[in-house]
Amino acid sequence: MKKFMILLIFLAALGSAMVQARTIEIDVHGMTCTFCVDTLQRSFTQFKTVSKVEVSLKHKKIRLETEDNLPSIDTIKQTVLDAGFTPINIVVQ
Amino acid sequence: MVTQWQKVVLFFLLSIFINASLAMGLRSLVALPVEKGGGVLRVAILGTEESERETITTALAYGINAQQTLLMGLPYRVSSATHSSQKNNRLGDMSLLYRHLVVQQDSRPGTNRFGLLAGALIPTEQDNELAIQGGFVFTHFKRRHEIDIDAVYQAGQNDRLDSGRFDLSWQYRLSPQSYPDWGIPQQINSIMEFNGRWLQGQDTTGQLTLGLQWLYTQWVIEGGLVKDINNNKQRHYLFSVRFHF
User: Fold this and answer.
1) N or C: which end of chain B has fewer CB within 10 A?
2) What is the radius of gyration, based on Cα positions, of chain B?
3) Cα B138 to chain center, whole Å?
4) Do A38 and B217 touch (CB under 8 A)?
5) How far is A80 from chain B (nearest CA, A)?
6) Is B32–A43 a contact, with Cβ atoms under 8 angstroms apart?
7) Which residues of B touch A83 (CB under 8 A)?
8) Each residue's pLDDT tens digit, B130-172
9) B81: pLDDT confidence band, cut at 50, 70 and 90?
């Protein structure tokens, strides 16, 4: 019974984490070189709730993975603007 | 024996290289952003073949926000003085420039940006005079090409002569031909520039600059050759390292 309860709690925690995990993709215009990638990567790494940041110069996208509360859409937009670029579209998956 | 003319040219070159040190081209200024609270530190060594003159310029760009940037630079003469008045002071004039981006048209393949420049050349020697400087910078970027155009006029105060400069720079991404899907790639650019340097009372010196640039994460290492195409037809070389923080 005790083992069953532990398994139940583990599965509940895992399920909760899976539900809360989010991927956010942001289309960004105005990127020109590797400095831009580095700038955006470092800007979003500062968020404690963002666990992974990927930037694509090829696709002009930023991909964020969060395991906690999402940064607000306004915060995401402002971060891109402060870095010197134009956020076009934000998709939360 | 160094003539007054040579002294003026040396002084002018110091001023030029302060300004030139904050470019994404080798010697041109650029209208690309420095992010809010971020900065770029650049250390550049520039030498002139015939006169064996070398100057190290330390320059810092600081992003007040994405549109406003402060550009500071200070040259230090490494080689021995060519004029008696320079023996006690190896520092050149400190350049302060404020850049305000007034047009930003971003698109998927690139960007067009136009900025205004204003600032001063502040002498580090009591004998020298201040100069007020102002101008513009334009950057067009699309796919593998970047074009930078700038022009700056430096109005000397009191006895200081006026001076000016312009730069046309074309940079082409040699590698990679295609970016990876995600992540930061190493990048190599070729650089070709046509530069003009003018000092009141003298003809404008036209210059051709050819160089290469290697970029990776927060670092840029670059070098190039500069050839005066008129006047004294001197050759110069430039090597620099930039760190983005």
Assistant:
1) N
2) 18
3) 14
4) yes
5) 9
6) no
7) 33, 35-36, 66
8) 999 999 999 999 999 999 999 999 999 999 999 999 999 999 9
9) low
Note whether B66 contacts A59, CB cutoff 8 Å. no
What ipTM was reported for this prediction? 0.82
Q: SS3 sequence, B60-117?
A: EEEECCCCEEEEEEEEEECCCCCCHHHCCCCECCEEEEEEEEEEEEECCCEEEEEEEE
Distance CA A85, CA B212 (A): 26
Map out the domains of chain A with their CATH numbers.
Answer: 21-92 (3.30.70.100)
The SS3 assignment for B205 reads strand
- A76 SS3 class: helix
In angstroms, rounded to a whole number, what is the distance separating the alpha carbons of residues B238 and B27? 9
What distance in Å separates the CA atoms of residue B42 and residue B35, rounded to the nearest whole number?
16
pLDDT at residue number A12: 53
Q: Which of B32, B104, B187 sits opposite A34 (nearest CB)?
A: B187
* A51: amino acid identity, one letter: S
- CA dist., res. B181 & res. A84, Å (int): 22
Domain that holds residue B43: 4-244
* One-letter amino acid of A36: C
Place B88 in a pLDDT band, splitting at 50, 70 and 90.
low
Question: The domain that contains B97 carries what CATH number?
Answer: 2.40.160.40
Q: Is B181–A84 a contact, with Cβ atoms under 8 angstroms apart? A: no
DSSP state string for B140-198: EEETTEEEEEEEEEEEE-TTPPPEEEEEEEEEEEEE-SS--SSS---EEEEEEEEEEEE
d(C-alpha A33, C-alpha B25), whole Å: 13
Q: 3-class DSSP state for residue B133?
A: strand
Query: B33 contacts in A (CB within 8 Å)?
Result: 83-85
**Partner-chain contact A86 B106, CB within 8 Å:** yes
